[in-house]
Amino acid sequence: MLQRYLLLIPVFACIYACDNTQATSKAKAITTSATSAADAVKGMVLVKGDVFMMGTDDPKSYLAERPAHQVKVHDFYIDATEVTNKQFKKFVDATGYKTVAERKPKWEDLKQQLPPGTAQIPDEQLVPGSMVFVAPDHPVSKANISNWWQWVPGADWQHPEGPGSNIEGRWDHPVVHVAWEDANAYAKWAGKRLPTEAEWEYAARGGLVEKRYAWGDDFTPGNKYMANTFQGSFPDNNDRADGYAITAPVASFPANGYGLYDMIGNVWEWTADWYDVDEYKSMAHQLTEDPKGPEKWHNPEDPYAIQRVTKGGSFLCANDYCINYRPSARRGTAFDSGASHIGFRCVKDAK
Ligand SMILES: [Ca+2]
Ligand SMILES: [Ca+2]
């Protein structure tokens, strides 16, 4: 049971972070780094808003992605790439910010996202850390994520595989092991914000209409990989046909039609919205303008977790396990859960 708790810790850890007001009061005050409008949009792309079909009616999709429904978004700027380790270090150096993965979890916070009656985890086992993908050396059941996810004390953005690892040589890779709170703190410092799910999905489509991928309907046009995903047999046999076993430097694959890199694959990306598995159904048969997501999370498959929407899939998305490397794909991720395959990018209003 303890192992199960430890696996759950990063998923449920640090609920105090849910309360933004409380979290902000604990952290060093973060002010924006941008000293001019030009600073704030450097590295960003202006996406002209329009009406688009969000979600999909594709039967080869997950139920939470359906149905396709009309949404209008207004103009916004979006980062051309995922936020990199180099960019995140600049933020940490300027603010002294400590990510959720670097803080000691508290039981009174953890238990709020655990089933009632869950036995208390001994305090000495509540240590900073994060979830790390560790490939097994043999085929395993895909029914149990603990076959490849390990809770690693000391894993954080500067130590992606845990103590002993570092990010030397990975400065242009996306930052990982960042929780939703961490992404928001960075965005605020940068004078930006996290994208809504609608903004993210509109941007990911790159101007294409109801295409399965960000580049069309063919996953590998001309036998060319267009995103960093997982090839082979998940999770033990990654044949790296796309050239990368884990994260790739940002912009290693072609940009989409809007000039945006890695909207699909590399790392999952946080959005601002709560995750409700039925949100797209609630938006059917109407045109919704600049939706900000539901008022509360809702996911019967993970009823105790407090989840935000992540989008785009990652280097771990495989065609035999998690086919989430598509613009309409969406996943609920516990707001306090960083992992070795979750990052983010920011947006900014165009005025
Ligand atoms: Ca890959
Ligand atoms: Ca991505």
Automatic annotation (TrEMBL):
Annotated InterPro entries: CTDL_fold, Sulfatase_Mod_Factor_Kinase, SUMF_dom, SUMF_sf
Cross-referenced Gene3D superfamilies: paralog of FGE (formylglycine-generating enzyme) (3.90.1580.10)
Superkingdom classification of source: Bacteria
Alphabetized GO MF terms: formylglycine-generating oxidase activity
Pfam families cross-referenced by the UniProt entry: FGE-sulfatase
Domain Sulfatase-modifying factor enzyme-like: 42-348
TM ranges: none
Protein name stated in the entry: Formylglycine-generating enzyme, required for sulfatase activity, contains SUMF1/FGE domain
Species per Swiss-Prot/TrEMBL record: Chitinophaga jiangningensis
